[in-house]
Amino acid sequence: MKEIKILSPATVANVSCGFDVLGFCLESIGDEMVIRKTNKKGIHITKIEGYDLPYEAEKNVAGVSALAMLNDAKPDFGFEIEIYKKIKPGSGIGSSSASAAGSVWAMNELLGRPYNKTEITAFAMKGEALASGCEHADNIAPAIFGGFTLVKSIAPLKVLEIPTPVELYATIIHPEIEIKTSEARAVLPTEIQLSKAITQWANVGSLIHAMHSNDYDLIKASLHDAIVEPHRSKLIPHFNAVKNESIKAGALGAGISGSGPSIFTLSKGKENASVVAEAMKKVYSKTNINYNLYISKINTQGIKII
Ligand code: HSE
Fold this sequence. Notes:
Layout: E1 3-13, E2 22-38, E3 43-49, H1 61-73, E4 78-84, H2 95-110, H3 117-132, H4 140-145, E5 148-154, E6 157-162, E7 168-175, H5 181-186, H6 194-212, H7 216-222, H8 229-232, H9 239-248, E8 253-256, E9 263-268, H10 270-285, E10 291-297, E11 304-305
Helix pairs in contact: 1-2, 1-3, 2-3, 6-7, 9-10
L-homoserine (HSE) binds next to α5.
């Protein structure tokens, strides 16, 4: 195999209570990338469509992760990367992670699969770090493993695959404002109250239990964020209205997708996901903020060849 074309999916990180550790993979939106072996050594980004991003491999998230893998694998050839960017940078649905994970996932295929998913995740984290200023894998891991993942630790890197109840759907609204991850991290406190921490870890534990036991009521009872959302929600216009209307429309829960501005909800069944989508839309339709809306089954496969 000399060349492959892949779809690297968008992802939702944090999932309310699991800041920097939980994430899940979406089906209906992702970046397309073509990765090709070349005689010319090194990593060469030859095409970028969709958004204005740097061509220098050292300045591009897909290039940085690719260089990390290349320096480890040391093949006697190089790679060309074409990026057809569909996920808007700064939208909160794992735009940088999709690119960072896509390049190394595809290179691993072309190299004959020398690395496992955890090792691919570790290379991709180098690219993600360029975008967000710190290494975290809560978007990268679900893009590579598919489904829901929990990043148990990053040093050493340990990713747990969490089962996905089959009727679970996500609805995402992306208001067209940009929030940089670094800015959304800067508004967070460095210390938290013990009582809030207790609430948060109880919710993380019960959410994981709910996923294992297909307990939608418990998913609903666990999708709360006592720590991050109160600070970040101020950066997203109409966040509280979207959240309240989604819950009224029957969503299991609603929260900030990654570092925002996208807002995610989870629903039991596609029908409810559509009802929730209408409720979310209604809030932004009354404002002058443009938005995109996605309804997606949870993507249990992750990155795939197309
Ligand atoms: N966990 C990260 C955050 C995801 O919320 O800052 C965004 O990169």
